[in-house]
Amino acid sequence: MRLPVNWTLLCLLLASLAGGEVRAQSPAPQTADLVLLSGHIYTSNPARPWAKALAIRDGRIMAVGNDAEIVKLQGPATRVLNLGGRMAMPGIIDSHIHFLDGSFSLDQLNLDDAYTAAEIQNRVREFAAAHPDRAWLLGRGWLYDAFKPSGLPTKQILDEVVSDRPIVLDCYDGHSVWVNSKALALAGITKDTPDPKQAGIVVGTIVRDPASGEATGVLKEEAVALVRKVIPPPSHEQELRALRAGLREANQHGLTSVLNASGSIEEMELYDELRRNGDLTVRMTTSLMMEPQLDEKTLAQFEEGRRRFHDEWVRAGVIKAFMDGVIESHTAAMIEPYSDDPKVSGSMNYAPEQFRANVLELDRRHFQVITHAIGDLAIRTTLDAYEAAAQTNGARDRRYRIEHIENIHPADIPRFGRLGVIAGMQPFHCYPEPNLANVWARNVGPARLANSFAWHSIAAGGAKLAFGSDWPVVSLDPFIGIQNAVTRQNSMGEPAGGWVGEQKVTLDQALASYTRDAAYAQFEDKLKGSIEPGKLADIIVLSQDLFAVNPLEIRKTMPVLTIVGGKVVYEDEKAKLGPAR
Ligand SMILES: [Zn+2]
Hints:
Structural class: alpha/beta
Radius of gyration: 25 Å
Shape: globular
Strand content: 15-25%
Number of strands: 26
Bound molecules: zinc ion
Distance between the termini: 25 Å
Largest sheet: 8 strands, parallel
C-alpha cells in the first residue's frame, strides 16, 4: 500500500531532519520497479482497451501508455522488459476451482482421456507398480462413457488388477467415486449400510446390485464420504508440498487469482502460512461449505473465516451450497424427467423452504452465497431463494452466484440479469466429446438441448459471467476454456458452427469473464481484473495473440511471463524478454 502524499512528504521531512538516510532505501517516488515496453496490451478496461507499455511500482500498476510515456518512469533500479510485440493481459482469475484437490491430483493416478475399461486397468496396474509404498491408491478422471451401456463401472474391474490395496478413483466430475472391494471393506460398507441422509433427505447413493443388494463399487454424492473418512489424511508437509506444486502449475498457465469453490478454515490457514513464507503466488478467495442444517456452530465458523481472512491474498466471506448433483449420473434436479429414464428427475439436497431460510440467515449477515445448481429445477429454486432474500432483507450489493447452470429453463434466463445474479460457468465443461454427446445430451434429451450451457443468452439478459475451470474436474488451463467459449467445437473443428453454437460468446466476452467480471464476482473489481493505474499488478504475457490466431489454436497459448503483485512468478526463459537486469 502506498502512503498518501502528505505522509510521504512528512516522512521525507522527518528523514531529512534525521540525516536523510531513509531516502536511499527505496527508488525515488517517480520511478518504476518494473516496466513492460513494446507490447500489445489488452487491458480489459473498456474505456481504453489497448496499450503498448506499462509501469509497476510497489506491487501496483503505476501507469499505462505508450513506450515514450513509460520510459520516463525508468530509474537506475528499474527492471525493463521488452515484450517484442507480444500480447499481454490482466492475470487470469479462475472463478471456480478446487485448488487443494487439484494440487493433490498432480501426484495421483490420472484417468483423463482413458476411454475404455481396459485402458483404465492398464493405467491402474502401472500406477500400482510405480508406487509400491502407497497404502492407498488414489486417482481421478474416469468418464461415464467408458462403461457402456450402464455408464457406471464396477469394483470387479479394479479387483482384477489390484485386490490387496484399496483403490479410490474420483469420477472426473467429482460427484462419484469408484472403489475396489478392499476399499469397500475398509470403509465397512456392506449390503446393510444405509444411504446417507441429512435433515431427513437422502443425499447420497451406494450403488447396489439389484439382485443381491451388495455395493457394486460406485458411491454417489454424499455417500463418497463413507470411504473418504477412512483414507489417512495427508500430513501438513504433504499439503504444503502439494500446494507449492499447484501454485507453480497455476502460474505457468497464467492464473493469478482463484475462487475456491470448496474449502475450510484449515485450508485458508495453509494459504496464510504460504503467504507468510513468501510462497503464495496466487490470490486465494476460499468459500466455506453450507450443509442443509445451518446451525450456530457453522455460522460461528463462517464469521471466524471472515474475521481472520479478508485481504487481497487470502479471503473468506463466501458461502458455497450444493443444491443438486450432476446430469450424467441423474442426480441433477430437473423440472421434467430425464429423457433416457422417465422415472427419474433427480433430486435436491434441500427442501426449497429450508434453503430459503438458510439463504435469508446468511444474507442477513451479509455473506456472499454461491450455489452449485446444474438442473433447471435446482437453478430455479436457487433463484427463488435469492429473490426472496432481496425482497425480505432489502436492496444490497449481494453479487450472489449460481455455479454451473448446465441446463436452464428459458423462463429463468432473464432472472440472472434482473436479480443481478452472477453466472459462474466453466466453458470447458461443454467440450464436444463422447461424454457430452453420448451421456449428457442423451439424458437431457433434444427438447431441452438449446438451453445447455447458455452463456450467450444469460449474458444477453444483462448478467455477468464469471468463468473458471473447476480443476481438477478438467485442466486449469484457461486457454482451453477460452477456446471452447468461443468455438464449442472439438479440436477437429466439429461440429460445424459449434455444439449448440448459438450459445458461443465473443473473445471479448470470454476474456471479460476471466478478468474484470471475475474480479467483480469477488468484490475486487476496484482492485484487479483490468490493467489500470492503481490496480494490483497481476499481468500475464502470452506466447501468441489471442485475437490474431485461428480460434481453434487458442488452446496452444502459453504464458511466457506471469506477474503477481508486481513480482515475476513465472518466466519462460526461452522467450528472452530482454533487456533484463
Ligand atoms: Zn466445482
